[in-house]
Amino acid sequence: MFALTAEQIIALAPDDASVKAARGLARPGKWTALGQNDRALWGECKGSALYQVCVDPAEPAFKCTCPSRKFPCKHALGLLLMASGQPETVQLGEPPDWLNEWLAKREQSAKRKAARASPDADFDPEQQAKRAAAKDKRMAERQRKVDAGLEELERWLRDLARQGLAHAQQQPARYWDGMAARLVDAQAPGLARWLRNLASIPASGEGWGERLLAELGSLYLLLEGYRRLESLPEPLQADIRSRIGWNWQEGDLPADAWVRDRWLMIGQRSYEEEQLRVRRAWLWGQECGRLALTLDFAYQSQPMPPIAAPGTWIEAELGFFPSHYPQRALLRNPVLIDAQGRPPALADGAALLEAYSAALALHPWLGILPAMLAEVTPVRGDADRWWLHDSAANRLPVNPGFSEGWRLLALGGGTPLTVFGEWNGEQFWPLGAWVKERFAAF
Amino acid sequence: MAWQELVTCALLGTERQAPQLIAGENALGDLLTRLNSEDREGALLRAAGTLALWRRAGQKLASNPRPLSPPCPPDETPVCGARASEHLTLMLQGHYAELLPEWLTLLRATGRRVPEECLPALLDAGAKQAELRPALLPALGQRGRWLARHQTAWSFAVETDDEQLWQTGQFEERLALLRQLRAIQPECALELLTATWKDEPVRHRKPFLQVLADGLSMADEPFLETVLDDRNAEIARITADLLARLPESRLAQRLTAQALALLRLVPGKRDRLEVSLPEEDATLSRDGITGSPPAASVKLGEKAWRLSQIIGAIPPAAWQQEWQRTPAQILAASRDNEWRKALLEGWARAAERHRDPDWAEALLPIYSDHATLTAALAAALPPERLEAYLLNLMNETSSGGRATALVVLSHVERPWSVALARAMLEQVRQRIREDKQPDWWLASALRGFARWIPPELSEEAAANWPREAKQWRQWEKAVEDCLDQLRFRRKMREAIAE
Q1: Residues contacting A182, CB < 8 A, separation 6+
Q2: Could you tell me if residue B68 is inside a domain?
Q3: Among B10, B59, B95, beta carbon nearest to A23
């Protein structure tokens, strides 16, 4: 029943120090009361006290009585590593009471969550009305703030256009940061992020002027769209609101947004943005054939929620955010499973650009298009830049932030590969590749 | 073009210039003409957004500037299994890294290859640690060598023209080449070195010369005999040392004749030795026999030191032949000799240098409290004789002898037999039971021991540790590390065989 590999377990760890500590704990001598059944693994670990550790490897979910703020802690990781490396040490057995308590608690909270998600739940109608009223009030308040923030942004943009980009280039960093901060206050975090990204363009070398103008124009069109939001088709309204920074909560998604399927975890990428660590994960549905993006965030020292490793399959529900080009999704009730398959691939770079422009026609502010590309060969160009050469003798630039060019080259050995990755309109970021039937993640 | 005009206008600002929208006869043109040009800022930004999107949606890819370089020919060798490749990834990330050479050697024996995506990390490891290369190079396969040609740091893995590299390479590359070549074709290495010897700077001569110690044979003798005259004393000394290891070299013959003239066995009920001490002599100096001991720790006079060096240089078997006595009998005959210290040290050196197991075995009991010398002598024994000696020593009652056995064992860097490994583990358990403080060297050596214990013992090795002993907490980490390594080795072997 237990199928996680050491590599997948290490991918769950919040940092290297945890892996090291966990490795030291993955020894039978450190444990008592070890056991497993079809739902969980458990054991008691001798640290400075005796800690009770339980892991549900399917989700995966963790619980440990130690005081560590890291999650999962070294004890939970140690237990997993031991079960993976020395399965004979963790025998099938009867779970102790504390494990049953944990499982029962998790079941309850899962039920509560489900109840909250379904409107038919047996709730006190008065209570519900009160809650709805409070929510409406909060939303109206936010709406007011956003409207004011956007008006200010429009004035700021028009001033910029009047004074000229050359004038903006002379401005100090606070010129951009100040506007971004005011947008944060106006509860428009999406626009604030956009503004911060703009700040680096004036110093980005040749062609900065046209790059900046393109972004400012796109931003202005978003504001215009927002001003006459009511006249636009509903999915496009949702896209504009998302771009500004409205987010969807699990409970707010309509029931038909949820898609149950077997999903292949096809690519992951983590990076830092301001004080935040961001993890993007792409999933492909075997039945529905859709590609979904889940995002997780964590503050610097805080743990990322655990996630299935690239190349593995889960059975789960994904709730897609309403959009003209649905992509972002929330993940619900995942369970690791075994399955086969992979998404169909685009024939060449031209097909990618065609798919990209079709997507832009639906969602003009689309950031990234996920794509499978058939028959591309990684090539190292001048100045350590990497390219993907396609079967039609054209080439796609690889994002300069991608640091695994050598592994990609090694994988193909100069012959074409099928590659999955993100196209941002200018560059490709490979996240996974197939050689024959074998998958490798980047 | 409309876009460039717009960019120019935007750079200057609309207060200096009104945006000129040049609209073509198409849908985009229609759209642009509908923008209100009285609102200069709005028109500029709207047009910019529209045109940028139009350009973004309509972009074309650049074509390849040059044809692709030839791909790696297909390799039909199967890749190692998923679990084995997981182990490799762990080692390349620095976990259990010291077991990497063993893993690579095991893999080679299975006829499989390293997964392609691990090759860059493997090549990086080889670029950083030259000592990994002997095990690493054969594991790279066709794909690895193909890949190495794309990155200068990986050039160590690229097949080269030996001759040319030797003539034009950097010192480190040349040294690595000489070592590599010496291991497979010793006479080719000698040929390269002989050809350029005269032009090599002194600082390079020394390390090059030391390479010849591997695969040394009489083929090297004529060259070495000429190097004896090198003006650099250090180089002459190394050369004399190399020549002394060749019993048939002219140097060994000269010194043997000298030695036999200095010592005389007087037979009797109890044999005895008569010793005369060598005087200073130009031939002796040329053969590397010096007058002053190199370190103050050698407590011998000038002449006794010379005697000790001569005995230490020549093959000790010469004495058996000359006197028809066993090494033990000869040692007994030297018992009351005034110069015994010089004699013993000479013989010990000779047994070590000429790897003479009979002499080593005879000398070992005399030096059993002298751990490093014991280790040096033990290295002269073939595996089965060494093992018998160690097992014997570990069963001794004196704790000095048992401690020596562990020291000697720590120098035996090859797989141990089951019996030897068991005895070693029991020794360590015993030391913990006796409440011994962890000997610092033993604690750090334990981890290394895991490399030589037969992995099939891993479960047995984990049992019966005196976890209740007072000192256990001090030992725990070292013992657990050792057991952890051992377990990983077992897993690694199982996975590679899958």
Answers
A1: A149, A152
A2: no
A3: B95
Residues B71, A413: C-beta atoms closer than 8 Å: yes
How many alpha carbons lie under 13 Å from residue A275 in its C-beta half-sphere? 4
**Whether residue B130 is found in the same domain as residue B176:** no
Block residue for tokens 């985009």: B28
Residue B341 lies in a domain: no
Residues 372-391 (A) with a CB less than 8 A from some CB of B = 377, 379-380, 389-390
Provide the 10 A C-beta neighbour count for residue A283.
26
Say yes or no: B111 and B234 in one domain.
Answer: no
Residue B448 lies in domain: 368-498
Task: Write the ipTM.
Answer: 0.81
Judge whether B322 lies within some domain: no
The verdict on a CB contact (< 8 Å) between A221 and B11 is: no
Contact A27 B51 (CB under 8 A): no
Chain B, 401 to 440: residues with Cβ < 8 Å from chain A are: none
Q: Per the CB < 8 Å rule, is B50 touching A161?
A: no
Contact between B116 and A361 using a beta-carbon 8 Å cutoff: no
Instruction: Give, for all 498 residues of chain B, the pLDDT tens digit.
Output: 588 989 999 999 999 988 877 777 788 888 888 877 788 999 999 999 999 999 999 999 988 877 788 898 888 888 898 889 989 998 998 888 989 999 999 998 998 889 998 999 999 999 998 888 888 988 888 899 999 988 888 988 887 778 888 888 888 888 988 988 888 888 999 999 999 999 999 999 999 999 999 889 999 999 999 999 888 888 998 999 999 999 999 999 999 999 999 999 999 889 999 999 998 888 888 888 887 776 666 678 888 999 999 999 999 999 999 999 999 999 999 988 999 999 999 999 999 999 999 999 999 888 877 777 888 898 899 988 999 888 888 887 667 777 788 888 888 888 999 999 999 999 899 888 887 777 778 888 888 899 999 999 988 998 889 988 888 888 888 898 899 899 999 999 999 988
Which residue in chain B has the smallest CA separation from A362? Answer: B57
CA distance B22 to B24: 7
